[in-house]
Each structure stands twice: as C-alpha cells, then as structure tokens.
C-alpha cells in the first residue's frame, strides 16, 4: 500500500480514537464520527446503520442525509444496497447507486442527489453489527485505498461497539448496552431436560481494548513474534510421536495456514494503516470468514474452523488471555461453545448443568456424551458464543431447544416453576423404581436403559431399569486419540457386566461413520453419509476391529451370558456374515483355553425398512432384534434427523409408520424372536405406551425417561389402546395421536 494512504489511514484512526475519547453519550459520539469520516475522506455523506435485531438495520447517525431520518429509516436484512452489504459482509462500491440491482430509494433521507456509494460491513469475528456508508454527488468509483481505509475504520468501530462506546439509555440513543439485554435464542434439542446456571465459555472471548496504534513498528514486532510463537507450537504438535498418518495430515493443513505469508502480510498492512496487532488479527479473521462463507465448496468452508482456531490462538498469545485464565467454574456451570469433542466434554463431566452449542447435531459425539451424562443440550443455538459472556445468567430448555440469556425475572420465575414441577414428578417416579411396568390389563413391559460410559451404570439401580438394552461401544473409540487395545476394551466390558450385577447388557458393535468419525479415522467425503459407508458396513469391509471387539467381549464375559448386536443391518446376508465373524472368535477363544460365554445371543438392529421385509430365515436366525427407531424413522419418512427443518415434520404415531411397526411385531411373533425398541421415542411416554400397545414388550431409553414411561404404562389399558389404534387406522386417519391423547386423558 502506498505510504500516502498509510499516512491518511493512520491520521484518520488517530482522529477517530481522539473523538471517541471525548466525553459524551453514544449518539453524540456517533454524530462526531460520521462528520469526522466524511471530512477525512472528502465525501458529502457518511452514515452508520446498526442492527436493531437480527433482521433490521436502522440509520443511527449521518452526516449529509436529512437529520430527521435518523432512527426513523429502517431496512430489512438484504434490502437495498445497505442490506446487501449486511447480508453478504462484502463491500459494495458503485459510481451509480440507483442503477445497481436491489437499490432501494428512501425519500425521507434526501439521498437521491448522491450517485456514488461505498458501503462496508461493521463486524467482529462473525458478529454482524451494521454497515458504514459514504456517498458523493459525483459519479465515481472509490479507489482500492479508500475502500481499504473505510474497512479499517469499520474494524475500529466494531471494537469500540464491543467495548460499549456507543451505548445509550432511552429513546433515540444509538445502542442499548451490549451483553446486558435479555436474549432468547431458538436452537434444537440435543438432549432433553432443563437447567439454570451461569455461562462458562469453552473458548472465552478475547477483549481488545487498544484497536488503534501510535507505533506501527512496535506492533509489527509484536505480530511477527506472536506468529513465530504460534508456528513453533504447531510444529511441536506435529512432532508428537503419538500422531498417526491421518492426524498428521490434518495438522499439516493447519501448519500450512500458520506459515502462510499472505496471512501475515495482510495483517502487517493493517498495522501499517494504523491498527494494533490484535485489531489486525481480528480484521483479517472477519474478512476471511466473509470470503469463505460465500464459497460453495464444503471442504473449503470447513477450513474456516482451522483459520478461526489459528486466529484465536494468535490473539491469546498477543493478549495473554489464554483459555487457562485461572478462573474457576461457577457453582452451576452451563458450558457454551461453538462445538466440542467428546473427550473435552467428558473432562468437564457431571459438573455441568447444561451445554449449549452454536453448531453440533443430534447425532454428534457431544450429543452422545451429553445423553450419557444426562446433561440438557441445545444445539444450533446460532450466535450464542457471540452473545454470551462468562458468568451470564442462562436458562437452558433442552425439551424445546430454547436458551434464555440474561432472562428477565418473570421468565426466570416461570422457568424455575417448570423445573420444580419436573423435580416433583421425578420424586414421584422414584417411588415406582422397584415396581414393575405392569399395565392395567396385566401386560408386563420390560424397561431398559441405554448406556455408553461407565458413568451411566450407577443409573441402572437408581432408575429401576431391568437391564441395558443398548450399550454403545463406539464412545470408547471416539474419546481416544488412537485405537484402543483389545485388553483395554475387555477390562471395560467386564466392568460394565460387573456393574450390571447379573442384568442383561446388549453390546452394540462399533457404530461409526455418518456423523460419528473416529479422530484417527480418515473421514470419507460422502454426499449422504447417513446412507453411506457406516456401522456394520465398515465392520465387514474392515473386519479387524469387529474381530477384536468380539474377542474383547468374549473375554469380558468370562463364562457369563453375553449379548451382542450389529448396527445398521440392511439384509440377511450381512447378518450372517457378521455372525460368522463372532462365532469364529468363540471357537478361537475356546481353542486358546479361554472361557466362552455360558449363553451367547447374537442380534441385529433393525434400522432400515429393507430388513423388515427380509426372508423368514433372518427372523429365525436372529436371537433377538432391536428396532433402531431414530434411523428407521428417518429412512421411512426420508427425513434427515440432522436437519431441523424436517426432523420434526413427521409423527411417530403416523398410521403408516405404525403399520410398519405392526408388520415387524407380527414377523417376530411368527418366529418367536425377541423384539425391542430403542430410540428417542421409547423414552417419550405417549409414544412408548403406543409402542407397548402395538406389541413391543421391551423398550430401551435414557435412564431419566424410565420413571415417566413406567408411570403411564401402569395407568393404561394397553389392550384397549391397541383396539383404538386399530380402529383409527381402519378409518384411514393420517395419525392416531388425537385419539390416543383422548384415550390417555381418560385413564386414571
């Protein structure tokens, strides 16, 4: 960049800093800034538009447009050229604004006499704050130097906004105080339950108090030293002896970014223009986010996370605001993060009251661990990491997928009432712990729990579960950085059986792929991973792990009964192949003189509609079948359970889906094959009682659901409910839910 523009930028930033340092409320400061920028850039107009809510921009200050339009002119996100800049986070620079596609004329501003338009986003690391605009009568394109200068100014405005420089009180003020207003964020349910507590940020926000620098040379020395330290730390990670080939490939890409000359050069240019080292890092981070978010290639978009991580690490080096700040977890911590791995979440453990993720998915590793720990989890809570500060009061509604940040007292009171009612209900359910799930018409239903960690097993006694209907073995693979050894797994599985104290435990073999990718497994770039190379398909194509798991389970049983089931069986041949692998390992262990199970059950998860129509021989061969309700429902309705738009669109009590359940129950009854249902619906009392009425005698669910499900079963006449379901289906209704709810309302 030419020296002239560097000098001009530095002069403008110094004038801006001095103006911000002068006394006055938020509106006065914004008015001074627009006048200062217009004067420095020799334009007739400078305007600042700020977000009033997620979808609305408001003209908050202007030099050159009609003063009466301030706080009156508003645009929707994407509306007009200003809305376009706000949506895309990309500058708009035009010599003839009225001719631009999407231009919106706002007569109250008097802007019709201005032809040229330059708008740049005011943003801070993904947080869209507003748009900074300059306009001139003359029809001219603004130079690259002018665009750059305005972007630098917008960066400083973003930092000062974060620090509250433009906060105001009352009508007509520029902004309400950031991070002080109540916020409600709608996300998705990752794990049901409710929690109240204080925010604990997994990655605390770095606060920049010095966006403008007087000494460019000193800042250049700082940024170069910090980047050098960052590069050394990445190189040290790569030198670790424990890394496998795939991990090294990931870190090599990480190192490539850290050693990028272009990345450092752009930050150096920002510093030469007048920014501090920290502000230069954030400016480049925000610009890269904006660029990559527009890229259609999913792989390149994923690299955004690598660049974010590098930038955040660099900021911590520069500011000393590392993750280990010495602060202690609050009394009732609610973890807030963009995303988090299973091992990291397990480190926090049961100390957490809840977890809120701005990303995540219902089948993610974090969701699996949250369920195992019975921690309420909200996913897809967009903006939570930007809005929340450590210590903020937070309410987590995992049932509805809502998060209330800094709630008003009336909201908090209503929420506490809800938690109190849930607690009272759980106390009532505790009284049913030792009672059977016996319906009014004498049907006994076995209620079992899902598990995946040793931490789950104490719930076996406390919940009153009859056993473990699903033990997810993949969690022990997901929380490690390398493949666990056979003897490690054998010891773990033995402890699980010991903790079960004679109750049946159904071990599901490794269910990986789709949304569960091992840290040491090369990701498969598949267009539809849920229907791709996953679960038993991986096990049969790469049988080493399947054999190793079978050996570990046989040794863990040590002569006790053993139940094994295979995930995602789609056809009879797959079951036979997988079963043969296990039986060969039984013969091998016997030949080695090891104890073999006193009784061996080998079953299958029925998660694809195809298996419901398998030959009778399959149902005769399988020792037991467990319906995997989550996957079966998503494939039956062709509704991706990771997609919030469609996952709740279809009802489990849809007559067509119940016909499929009826068909499976009948086929298992013909061959005397034990049948169970495992999935979210098994833990929802209304759905569970319908499944029981349909003939399912075994239901497996999270421990906290056993009490509510047992309570409703004990109050219900399952035979009468079955007759009502059949009658409704005969009428041709789409869903039996209304009739079921009416019936249950009349039960004692």
Brief summary of the model shown:
The protein is of the alpha/beta class and 748 residues long. It contains 27 helices and 23 strands.
Name the CATH superfamily classification of the largest domain.
Answer: Phosphoenolpyruvate-binding domains
Percentage of residues in helical conformation: 40-55%
End-to-end span in angstroms?
80 Å
Quaternary status = single chain
Shape: elongated
What would CATH call the architecture of the largest domain? Alpha-Beta Barrel
Biggest sheet: strands, sense, closure?
Answer: 8 strands, mixed
Structural class: alpha/beta
Strand arrangement, major sheet: 7-14-13-9-10-11-12-8
Number of helices: 27
How much of the polypeptide forms β-strand, as a percent range? 15-25%
Poorly predicted runs of 5 or more residues:
169-177
How many beta-strand elements? 23
CATH topology of the largest domain: TIM Barrel
CATH class of the largest domain: Alpha Beta
Number of domains: 4
Explain this structure to me?
Strand 22, helix 24 and strand 23 form a beta-alpha-beta unit. The N and C termini lie far apart (80 Å). This protein folds into four domains: 3-162, 2-Layer Sandwich (Beta-Lactamase), CATH 3.30.450; 183-204 and 332-422, Glucose Oxidase, domain 1; 216-319, PtsI, HPr-binding domain (Enzyme I, Chain A, domain 2, Orthogonal Bundle); 444-745, TIM Barrel, CATH 3.20.20. It is built from 27 helices and 23 strands. The relative contact order is 0.07. Helices cover 45% and strands 17% of the residues. It is α/β, with parallel strands linked by helices and 748 residues long. Strands 7-14-13-9-10-11-12-8 form an eight-stranded mixed β-sheet. The protein has an eight-stranded parallel beta barrel with strand order 16-17-18-19-20-21-22-23, surrounded by seven helices. The chain has a six-stranded antiparallel β-sheet with strand order 3-2-1-6-5-4.
